[in-house]
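Before going further, learn to read the protein records used in this course. The integers have meaning only within a learned vocabulary of local backbone shapes. To see the layout at work, look at the sequence and tokens printed below.
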Amino acid sequence: MRLTQDFRSQLYGPWEIAQGYLVEQFDHLIAQIIASYGKQHNADDTHGDITATSLIVTGQTILGQGLAINATAEIFIQMDGSQNDYNPAGFQTASIVHLYTAGLLFNLTGLQAPSDPTMARIVIFVPGNAITTIIFKNQSTSSLPNNRFDLGGVDYTFSKYPLALIWDTTPTIRQWRPLFRGD
């Protein structure tokens, strides 16, 4: 994980590390999108402009193409067992999810897809305590196809470091995919 020295001096825990890393990676992604936009599109394209606004004060980042990240929308979840098609209270609007367990190992086979599957969404998962261990299951048939994780063919053990997932709006995919892992 690479963070600028300015961020490192102000970080205290997993959420701050995830937030700093996400801001850095997101700014890099936006720069790549903007740089490649001019190369891939002619002046007479009708796709519209790609714009991004980062509001550090409010914790919200908005992309003109329908992606919003609200770093102030946090929920705290105590998982009491393995979950399929998981949709805890507050999940549909949360950008930060603190997951806790009571020291037991649980499986998570899928998360509820966004209510509008054409809108991209980023969710950052932060371990709630040192004994949290959850296995994010790759393409588990225990969850509906649109609620599954596409983790590149392998399960992911979530225990010490943040995990960010992005909802892939590609019509043939429409699943949760990793944006970054903190390990």
The CA atoms of residues 66 and 119 lie 6 Å apart. The longest helix spans residues 14-40. Residues 54-181 form one domain. The radius of gyration is 17 Å.
